[in-house]
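Protein modeling request. Please complete all fields; requests missing the sequence field cannot be processed.
Requester role: graduate student
Desired output: 3D structure, token encoding
Chains: 1
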Amino acid sequence: MPLSDEEARLLHQLEQSLAAEDPDFASTLRGSKFMAHNRRVAILAVLGFLGGLVLLFAGAVSAMTWLGVVGFVAMLGTAYLFMNAWKRGIGRSNDEPAGSSRKPPKPTGTFVDRMEERWQRRRDGDER
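Delivered output (128 residues):
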């Protein structure tokens, strides 16, 4: 059910007063600082990955194995940082809260029950 004009106006006034009283808290609620931090980490991770790739190739071309190993380790570390930043918030849509997870609920019942249920859903879907 959508908000009435009066309710929308009151909500907007509350948001403005909250932002005026405590801008850091309002920003945290909006998630803008959190998203900006994750975006910054992801960008630095991509740059670090590219730098590691350059080191890897430089080590291979110049026959300095240690330089290639350093590049490879840098690539692994920055890929890990990027994936963590992605999981924490960059990959989320704007309408999804920052603390929610995308995992489906854990299945209940036995394995056989779940398979029978899946079979029934498939059959019902095909008959329509």
